[in-house]
Each structure stands twice: as C-alpha cells, then as structure tokens.
Design brief:
The protein is of the alpha/beta class. Helices cover 45% and strands 17% of the residues. The protein has two domains: 2-164, Rossmann fold, CATH 3.40.50; 182-336, Rossmann fold (3-Layer(aba) Sandwich), CATH 3.40.50.2000. The protein has helices at residues 7-17, 29-35, 59-69, 82-95, 114-132, 141-151, 195-208, 221-231, 245-253, 269-276, 289-292, 307-318, 321-336, 341-351, and strands at 2-3, 23-27, 47-51, 73-77, 100-104, 135-138, 161-163, 182-188, 213-219, 236-240, 257-260, 280-284, 299-302. The strands form three sheets. It has a six-stranded parallel beta sheet, sandwiched between helices. A four-stranded parallel beta sheet has the order 4-5-6-7.
Amino acid sequence: MIAPHFEEYAFLLARALARDAAVLLVVDTGRLDADYADRSRPAAPGVTLRHCRFGAAELPGLALAIARFRPQVLHWQEPSGLVKAVMAAVTVTLAGPFCRTALTIHDAVPHSGRDARVAARLAPVRRFTRARVQRLFVHGPSCATQYLQEYLPAPHRDARLRLTEHGTILSGAPVPPPAEFRVLMFGRMEAYKGLDVLLAAWRQLAARGVPAALELAGSGPELDRLGADFAALPGVTVTPGYISSAQVIDKIGAADALVLPYHSATQSGVLAAAMGNGRFAVASRVGGIPDTIQHGVNGLLVEPGDADGLAEALAGLAADADLRRQLQAGARRTAEERLDWQQIAQRMLADY
C-alpha cells in the first residue's frame, strides 16, 4: 500500500489488512509520526513501514522496493501533486502484469477552490492511472455516482468499482459529553465548507438567546474572512492556526456534536473522526455525507445553504439533552460496526 497522503487512514487500514496478509506500507513516516504526536500509535504486527517523501528522485527506489516485496496487490491512495501522481502512474503500469492493482479515490470530484485548481492540472495523469488499475475503491454510493458521472460516458458503468467505508480516525478514549450544548467545527476552512451558512445560523441563535457554544478551530481563507464576525457573537470561540491531532481529539471530546454546513462534499474524514469519538454531526445533505449519517439515528441532516434549517436543528439539540444522547449512542454504534477497520479490511480483501 502506497499512501502519499492520508497517513493515519492508510496506517489503520494496513494494520487491519495485516491480520490476513503481509503489508508493506510506503508512507512519509515523519508525517505519520506527526499524526500521532502526543498520543500512542497502535501496534501493527505484520506491517512493514518504508519511508518515502515522494520526490521525483525516489521513484527508482520505490519501484525497487515494490519488486523486492513481490506483492499480490499494489494499492495506491490517490495522490495530489504532479510528481506523486506520475509516480502512481509509473508504478501501476510497471506492476500491472505481475500483480493486482488498486486505487482508492478519496475525492471523485474535487472540492471547489484550491483543490479544483490542483485537480485540473492532475486530471490527465489521474485519468491514465484510473484507467489502468483493476480495482477502484470509493467511499459510498454518492462518491461512486460522482465518479461515474464525471469520468465515464453514459450509461455510467465500471465493473472495477467497489464501495468502501471511511474508517474511524483520530479516535481517543471515551469521555462524557459536556453539561451544556457545545458544537465544534475544525479543519481547513475553505469556501465549500459553508462558514457563511453557519454564521447566519449562529446569528439567529444569538438573537433568540439559545444557550449554546461553538468553537471554530483551524485555518483557511474563510476563517480569515469571517473569524472576526464569529468572535463577536456570544458563545463563540475562534481558535486559529494549526491544531494537532491530540488537540483535535480533546476538542471533539469537549463537544456534543460537530457541525458540517458544507455547500459541497465527497466523503468526510471529519465525520469519521466525530463518530470514532462517540460524537454525532449536524451536516448538510451533500455528497457522501448522507451515506454515513442516518437522520435522527446517528446525526442530523439539513439542506445545503439553509441557514434557517441549520439554526432550527441546533436550537432543537440545545433544548433536548435526551436527543443528544440518543444521537451520540447512534454515532458510537456506527463507528463500532460500519466504520470498524477490521470489517472494512475483510470486505476489501474479498474485493481485491
């Protein structure tokens, strides 16, 4: 397995696969160590780590390491960045006659903004690689539909396509929820994440005197643009800058729920992190989010761009501690069942 990004995701998947197979995980071990800074990385017997920074000069060494390992399956996590994309294309082409090849497509359609500009430059190389692997994995039916509609002519069929779940990440020890209603939004704040919708909704809550607290943690152009407006509202804490994995886990545990007011989405690692810590999400009904959230069971869904609907959902949660506990229990069940890495690995082994 080769993972130029998504280091914790790839490590946990490799660890689960290693119960039934020997796994060589090629990853930037410095970035993996940073993911686990201030928290223990679980043991992974059966996984051999090989460090790679994915520079152009490392391609011969990577090809040699693959040849020496003699894998039955070569599985890439789809890269972002031209050099990494070329490395994927070359190694998949070279390995194709000797082993099965697979690719996980994390974002079948790129997010708007910076991601879309990067994806446009990579599109020819990505198409080349996607066309040559024997298995394509995407996170849920919505992501599969996005992939098929974007990359294939009608009638949109690809027999190589397989569905997989985004397993839990950033999981910490179970902690009780706060006494008062608190919500969290964290990560890189791009325009597609809907901070403008959340701002309009929170202004409504403030005007109505709803007892609720919100923390925004992370960085990005939308937080730069709207951070001062949020900070002026009652109950809002803005924590700008880099947030370590350990800090993210603590912040999730200090909240009742996460809020994902996205305008657009594919799959969501943030949602997997929430459920891995026994917390639900109030999220927009976009992309792959409804594939994971069952409304009223393990979270709440609102329509994208609907500030009124988001305000109503948050106000209802603030007034109903029993509903919050019910949704948290549903999120824990989802994490233990559908988002369990061992179950994901077993299905993936069968799909190879």
